[in-house]
Design goal:
With about 180 residues, this protein is mainly α. It has helices spanning about 5-15, 20-30, 35-55, 55-65, 70, 85-115, 120-145, 150-165, 165-175. Helix content is about 80%, strand content about 0%.
Length: about 180
């Protein structure tokens, strides 16, 4: 048998291998000096870890004095939350009050922006971004092959949907 790797040797030492594999590894370790040394090293390391992690006398005394019964008690059954309608009402009232306080300020800020021409600047910026997006779509369309039928079918389907559904007419009727 080939020497087992570290994971297989650890599984064997933990007794986690299948019985047939456990017997084969045990027979190999008994015959192989290298694997016997690896086993002795692993056993010594485990003994060191157990000694390092063992509780000392003061920790054991503190543990003996600790009242751990509180941890074992069953949790109190949760009461139904009756506070959420009140918090919802309070949140709505606070939102309304904030709007009443902020509306005059926002109205004067919009009026000032309109007088300074900032609305036109904002619209110009938005139109420039739309123009750039259209140019990018045009450039992408230039690279599309005419033989890509799935893409053309999707484009025709979108155009038909826009023609039949006319989503802009519903938006116009609402305003």
């Amino acid at each position: 048998m080939i020497c087992p790797d570290d994971a297989r040797l650890d599984l064997w030492l933990d007794g986690a291998l299948a019985p047939a594999d456990e017997g084969a590894v045990a027979a190999h370790v008994a015959d192989c000096a290298t694997c016997a040394g690896r086993r002795a090293t692993r056993v010594a390391e485990e003994a060191l870890w157990r000694a390092a992690l063992a509780l000392d006398a003061s920790e054991l005394a503190a543990l003996a004095r600790a009242d751990l019964t509180a941890w074992r008690r069953a949790a109190a059954p949760a009461r139904s939350a009756r506070w959420w309608p009140a918090s919802l009402l309070l949140g709505a009232a606070a939102t309304y009050a904030a709007w009443l306080l902020a509306a005059p300020t926002l109205e004067s800020a919009a009026g000032l922006a309109s007088r300074l021409g900032l609305i036109g600047v904002g619209l110009g910026w938005a139109l420039a971004r739309l123009w750039d997006a259209g140019a990018a779509l045009g450039a992408a369309a230039a690279y599309v092959s005419a033989s890509n039928t799935a893409l053309w079918a999707a484009a025709v389907g979108l155009a038909l949907w826009l023609f039949v559904a006319q989503p802009w007419s519903a938006a116009r009727a609402d305003s």
